[in-house]
Fold this sequence. Notes:
With 305 residues, the first copy, chain A, is an alpha+beta fold. Chain A is built from 8 helices and 11 strands. In chain A, β3, α2 and β4 form a beta-alpha-beta unit. Chains A and B meet through β1, β2, α1, β3 and α2 of A and β1, β2, α1, β3 and α2 of B.
Amino acid sequence: MTVRTWRPEDPGPVAIALDTLVAGVHFRADVSPRAIGHKALAVNLSDLAAMGARPRRALVHLAHPDPPEAWEREFAAGLDALAARFTLRVGREATRRAPLTVTVEVAGTFPHAARPPLRRSGARPGDAIYVTGTLGDAAGALAGAAALAGRLDLPEPRVPAGMALRGIATSAIDVSDGLAADLGHVLRASGVGASVETARLPLSPALLTAFGRERATDLALAGGDDYELAFTVPPERERLLAEAPLEVPVTRIGTIERGTGLRCLGTDGGPRPVPRGYEHFVTGAGRDGEGNRDAPSAPEPSPRP
Amino acid sequence: MTVRTWRPEDPGPVAIALDTLVAGVHFRADVSPRAIGHKALAVNLSDLAAMGARPRRALVHLAHPDPPEAWEREFAAGLDALAARFTLRVGREATRRAPLTVTVEVAGTFPHAARPPLRRSGARPGDAIYVTGTLGDAAGALAGAAALAGRLDLPEPRVPAGMALRGIATSAIDVSDGLAADLGHVLRASGVGASVETARLPLSPALLTAFGRERATDLALAGGDDYELAFTVPPERERLLAEAPLEVPVTRIGTIERGTGLRCLGTDGGPRPVPRGYEHFVTGAGRDGEGNRDAPSAPEPSPRP
């Protein structure tokens, strides 16, 4: 149980992300404690990045049945190293309890109030669709490519890109469930459709080497856990995008269209099927419900009078 | 994984409480889903009450291995009924996963900025020590008194009292680990000692009937889970206290003194021993570390440069 006060550094809205990671479900039980600390914080920072928030404060609860001292130290080191890069203050608490679970809450603010938070609901026909970095690498690691393990275990939250995209992007989301699934959330929230040219998907050399182009494209479309940002930009803001301090390369992969649904186009311009969705590590453990991941644009249940 | 934006309704600091309740550790596995929903929110509201914050927004993550629909509906009803009383907006998310775990984050604000948040560190020699409601009832329920089960399963967070005490109390804490233990936190944070007259402890008729005065006094001193507020008031503010809209009776139980440590006095004015601390339901499951429960007054680890 933790409580703290915090005086937001910027006026206007605050963003609050909350996530619980369980060993064997959200990370491999044999992964290093440093990576667990990193990833638990990274996935929450990625949620803030998708809104363009600047992370300010975090609370971390670790439940571990019997943590060796070195384990706790490494876990904290993984957290602290990532937090330090964003000048994020972290409060920690530990409980002896199974299963190994990490709960992280991160609060952020929106500097430059004139540039509103990024939402999923702002994509408009004619907007270009972009993604940061490369896609499919985390899924490639899950599929056995050892060279990509770092992309699965130590994801890089795109915090500077998210902050820079406020005022430029009309919508944004972080790719945690797979590009097709997450773009689908944007399309539904925005009431639009889209086409994606799969030949344009940014694929890492390591992914192409390990799986070849076809399978790599499948992984990029359906694989999760990449924590890249997908976002939409209207034509008149392409110039602003080119000049924005994103701190990561971005690739145009498609276009927002009228209508509904996502059309994936192959190299011949014809439709390309999207493979089945990505699964978590433990078969049968179940997926997180979508719940109110759409919360910024979806209504919350109203309190009864 | 949940993220939302929220525009704080009041300027100044915000308060954020975070807690994870696990079946068999923090609540009885056979308790009703309505009570689980209530208690998961109540313990976080109690943390905000101890700071005098007004609760505004909550995020709730439910992990359940296989929740029947009626179970989820009752759980939500327990949450929503409590939330509605404080006009608190709640976002919910569910995951299929064992063990049954509820994670709650609640954010609050501080209306009337001239009255600062309550802290543990402000008690001064000469202040009177008060508690809300009655003590020991939850521990009495744990010890077998069925008539007190509601006090254990459906604790009442003292939100209106906490809000009204800003500007009046010099320190406050919620009694979750037992009066002696929690007052100890206040004494250490404030650098003072205290004496408590055990004959003044507010004991419910049901507790006295079930256990007699001596054992009831032990339960009141060492039993946890009551979620009443303990707070300190300087003599010149007793009048303000009497007029404050606390929405719960309060009882003066002792006095803050110079020095350190808590002295408990019996009916003869001599020292009365404090029984051993309260244990959670499951023997050997371990207690939550104190962690940064003192966060409002304790420094957080600084990020490395």
